[in-house]
Amino acid sequence: MDLSELINNYKFLSNKEEHLKAAGFESDIDIFKVVAHFIREGNLEIVKQFIESGYDVNSSESGDFGSSLLHNAIRYGKMDIFDYLIEQGADIDFMDAVGWTPLMESIIDGKPEFGAKLVAKGADQTIANQRGANAKMLAMKFGQSAFLEFLD
After folding, report:
1. pTM
2. pLDDT digits (tens, 9 = 90+) for 7-33
3. CATH numbers and ranges of domains, the chain
């Protein structure tokens, strides 16, 4: 039985940690991977169940990149999950381990519809990543001209 079936069969268990361990997930770090998996799959209902059960909307993965759930929603082009995470208080200026914000993620991934929403919500365009580049600089560097229409 895969994790999706496990969660669907139990309709999101109140004792989720015990069942996640039984499925091979051993810690909160792994829970991020589980939620990221459901983001990638576009399963908004399961993502909602985790957040509504107290999983931190601003959680990030451990390791080299440290991306947030919001970064993942952008990366995989899941606008409904992106909107939900923002409604639930996701930090639109969250910096991952290399200094990338969700706005920068949208630029690198070539997803101006996400970038435009972030800017409309007040994303800080002046934040620079570890190499000193801000959103507009990245849009120019990577030839993402659609972003230049709404970036300052």
Report:
1. 0.81
2. 554 344 445 566 566 666 655 447 888
3. 3-148 (1.25.40.20)
